[in-house]
Design brief:
heterodimer, A: mainly alpha, 22 helices, 72% helix, B: 370 residues, D-Maltodextrin-Binding Protein, domain 2, 5-stranded mixed beta sheet, 3-stranded antiparallel beta sheet
């Protein structure tokens, strides 16, 4: 393995391939920064170009792009409060308040350093797991996948802060909205009112952008303030990097968690950051500041969502089972390059597999460095007056939302969800549970249906199911319990 | 005689002029292949990027571009959703029939049309086919199901679980096959898997012990399993031969077809409504598994040029060799073979389709069929 790894590194370090990694990184940064675009969009853009390339170069380009999206998507999340991609929403919770205090440099510095470490950890875990990954991937059947979805949903309680009832209702409402469209198991359409646009359900990008981005834009204009309330930029990136070093265990834990979640196909990359955020909030001390600008609330999701990419590649490369929308397209790219995902990735194509691992690590490094360099320039966005910046941002967001299906329904849904999000914001209802419920509705229903069809009720007795169930129970119980304590302190 | 001479002189002018016009006209015809020069052709793929249909046509893109007169650039537009029905609907409703918009379909698009799903707005019998890629289907089982060959399905010793997606898509062929063989009641069919990839995963995980894959997918993904002993091929769905009967899949000559299995199980030749329906579906779906179409009312010039491109593409050795994986060893259909396959679709007996609809409604509680 080691010789093959070194051989692969030599191949990757070939100058012509480095060029492609850098090209991929730059495209990934643009895709990450523009809200509403995400991995699948970037992949579809690059696919036509890789045809005819040799596999190493093609992968350098594709992986280079994928690795960096979750590094660069922090820019809009921190600076504007708008998710740069679906994996970056949790970062907004603490990153945006930091920017409002004028501390955006610190938030970004910490985020990029965390992303860097997260990406490398993800690549490293990928490297270790590959030889032994097959049995692990195979052990995640429908019951286990259902329990993982349930785990994601249980995060709702944690994310609700002090109002668990509101959080639960929001989560349930989110799940209800998630059922719009085709049913997973039967040829039925729900809540589509015969409008062809809704047959596919509400696209995630539209939902997320509407829920979080539009309310921010409205408020910025209404309150006539710049994002940074102090009007100046403070906060050094170095401080942010130091924060990461002093929280190194958090970074490593979150990265490992991110890789694990990415590895479970079907869970969806868009909950990785929430789960990591929720777990951090539960397991760290003094987390009352979470949601108001605690730097750890930035570090945890950022390391997780970069590490996730390494995780999603495990089932993708070993089995040809895509772990996310991005890897689904990556598989198509592999075929175009003449490579078949599956057992051959460990035998005849091992050098290519290892070159993918190296590219992932290298791209994360390049990407983080580039982003750190660009921080000062891009941060200036947060001190521009709202009446200049909001129209510009609104157009980018609307175009981003429209990318989902290129149907005017995108715009209508965007506005409606945006108004709902704005109301929730001002009525103090937590929006994160709404999003989590929405994202996990389809997969949890599908896997529950499959588990019941296949096993009746027996699947509930399997050991993995029970262990995940205990974790969920623990999380929910401590969430309810935890919420009683502040009242005692106040009383 | 003078009259004749005058007459001849009179005649010369019109003749010369007509001859000149004819020459000019034929001169225009000679470089008539201008329809696609400097143009873009869009291929609407009603699936998300990375899937089988998407990969196939992305592979074909550059060859078609090279070989189609005018050398247009082919661009892919992915419109997933509704099991490919939505994208196909969008093509016929929203895309202009100007000859620059094409549609790629797969069996998942064809079958809802054939069984008359209400949401289908397209009529494949109207459209102009450009190239079709056949694909077979193979059913296989795991070694611990106790099934060693297909006839064992009649008396299984273990519970059999088959992973499927929905009784309105590509699975219809499987349902008909099982009905023909009369083993449906011995198998628990689990619907709800997100496609053939997911059901294959479930098979590998041991969640199901029976699965089927398209020929190209079987070659790439299941053959290695067979070689290492964790999968056992049972039968192929076969193809419709020239005499209208089911023959073995040419890509899997050693695997028996459904027909042979029936004969082994029940003694005589298969017959009846289910069998007729099965043959129809195999003929249309396997014969034309993935197809590229042009609108019915698109200019015939466009169809001609595209078809020329298609013929040249499949005669290009590099295309066939480089595409071994995506084509799965099947030769694409163009020209008269393609015509014959399309005619089979157009000539499908309405009463057979009626029977299939009733069958699906009664046995599988399907709703929403016209």
């Amino acid at each position: 393995m080691i010789e093959s790894a070194i051989e692969a590194l030599v191949i990757v370090l070939d100058p012509s391939r480095i060029v492609f990694i850098l090209l991929g990184v730059m495209i990934g940064i643009v895709v990450g920064i523009l809200p509403g675009l995400g991995g699948p969009v970037g992949m579809s853009m690059l696919l036509p170009f890789i045809f005819g390339m040799d596999p190493y170069t093609g992968m350098a380009l594709l992986i280079g792009m994928v690795a960096v999206i979750h590094t660069a998507d922090t820019f809009p999340s921190v600076l504007i409060g708008v998710p740069g991609s679906s994996g970056s929403q949790a970062t907004i919770m603490d990153g945006y308040p930091l920017a409002k205090k004028g501390d955006s440099g610190r938030a970004l510095g910490a985020a990029f350093a965390a992303s860097l470490v997260g990406g490398i950890v993800g690549a490293f875990i990928l490297f270790i797991v590959i030889p032994v990954g097959r049995p692990i991937v195979l052990s995640f059947g429908s019951p286990e996948l259902f329990m993982m979805s349930l785990l994601g949903i249980s995060m709702v309680g944690v994310l609700s802060g002090k109002a668990p009832i509101k959080g639960i209702i929001a989560g349930l409402l989110g799940m209800l909205i998630g059922t719009v469209g085709g049913a997973p198991a039967v040829a039925e359409y729900r809540f589509t009112f015969d409008w062809i646009y809704l047959y596919r359900g509400i696209p995630l990008a539209v939902f997320a952008l509407g829920l979080f981005a539009l309310p921010e834009m409205i408020d910025l204009l209404a309150q006539r303030r710049t994002i940074s309330s102090t009007g100046t930029l403070k906060g050094s990136r170095i401080k942010g990097i130091k924060d990461v070093i002093s929280n190194k265990w958090l970074v490593l834990r979150s990265s490992a968690l991110g890789t694990l979640i990415g590895f479970v196909p079907g869970l969806g990359g868009s909950v990785v950051d929430w789960i990591s955020y929720g777990v951090a909030k539960k397991t760290l001390k003094n987390t009352e500041g979470f949601g108001h600008g605690d730097i750890r609330g930035v570090i945890a999701p950022e390391s997780a969502n970069n590490a996730k990419e390494g995780g999603t590649l495990i089932p993708t490369l070993l089995f040809g089972i895509p772990g996310s929308g991005t890897t689904a397209i990556l598989l198509g790219g592999l075929i175009l390059l003449g490579v078949q995902a599956g057992p051959s990735m460990l035998t005849t194509d091992l050098p290519l597999t290892l070159s993918i691992v190296w590219t992932l690590a290298l791209a994360n490094i390049f990407g983080a460095l580039l982003c750190l360099l660009l921080t000062n320039q891009i941060s200036k966005l947060s001190i521009i007056k709202p009446d200049k910046i909001v129209p510009f941002l609104l157009i980018i967001m609307v175009v981003g939302a429209y990318q989902s299906t290129r149907h005017w329904g995108d715009l209508i849904v965007f506005i409606i969800i945006g108004l709902v999000g704005w109301s929730m914001k001002h009525l103090d209802w937590p929006r994160a549970p709404l999003l989590v419920g929405f994202v996990l509705a389809l997969s949890s229903e599908r896997y529950l249906h499959l588990s019941m069809s296949r096993y009746g009720y027996e699947w509930m007795y399997q050991p993995t199911v029970i262990s995940i169930g205990l974790v969920i129970f623990f999380i929910v119980a401590s969430g309810l319990f935890f919420n009683r304590r502040p009242k005692k302190i106040e009383g | 005689m003078i009259k004749n001479q005058s007459f001849k002189k009179l005649m010369v002018a019109p003749v010369v002029i007509s001859g000149a016009m004819a020459t000019v006209a034929s001169g225009v015809n000679a470089d008539d292949h201008n329809f696609f020069s400097d143009e873009n052709v869009e291929i609407l793929i009603p699936f998300s990027a990375g899937g089988g249909t998407d990969t196939l046509f992305r592979y074909m893109q550059s060859y078609m571009s090279e070989h189609t007169p005018g050398n247009p650039t082919f661009q892919i537009l992915n419109v997933p959703g509704g099991g490919s029905v939505l994208g196909a609907n969008e093509y016929v409703i929203l895309k202009e029939p100007n000859g620059y918009n094409t549609l790629a379909t797969s069996a998942s698009t064809t079958i809802p049309f054939m069984i008359g799903q209400e949401s289908v707005e397209y009529d494949l019998r109207d459209m102009q086919p450009i190239i079709g890629v056949p694909n077979g289907v193979v059913m296989y089982t795991s070694p611990d199901s106790g099934i060693e060959e297909a006839t064992d399905l009649q008396n299984p010793s273990e519970e059999l679980f088959l992973g499927a997606t929905s009784p309105t898509g590509i699975d219809v062929m499987t349902l008909l096959a099982l009905e023909v063989l009369d083993v449906k009641d011995n198998i628990e069919i689990i619907f709800g898997y997100e496609g053939a990839g997911a059901s294959r995963t479930a098979f590998m995980q041991g969640e199901t012990n029976l699965d089927y894959q398209s020929g190209s997918s079987y070659q790439n993904n299941v053959t290695p399993l067979v070689e290492e002993g964790s999968a056992v091929p049972l039968f192929s769905y076969g193809f419709l031969g020239e005499d209208g009967d089911i023959v073995r899949d040419p890509a899997f000559p050693e695997i028996p077809s459904v027909k042979e299995v029936y004969v082994d199980m029940h003694g005589g030749e298969p017959s009846g409504k289910a069998w007729d329906a099965y043959k129809v579906f195999v003929g249309v779906v396997n014969g034309l598994h993935k197809t590229l179409w042009l609108h019915a009312d698109a200019p015939s010039e466009a169809a001609e040029d595209l078809r020329e491109g298609a013929i040249a593409t499949i005669n290009d050795e590099a295309f066939i060799e480089g595409g071994a994986d995506v084509l799965g060893g099947y030769t694409p259909l163009v020209g008269s073979e393609l015509e014959a396959a399309i005619n089979a679709l157009a000539e499908v007996d309405e009463s057979t389709l009626e029977w299939v609809r009733t069958y699906l409604e009664e046995e599988y509680d399907v709703t929403g069929l016209k």
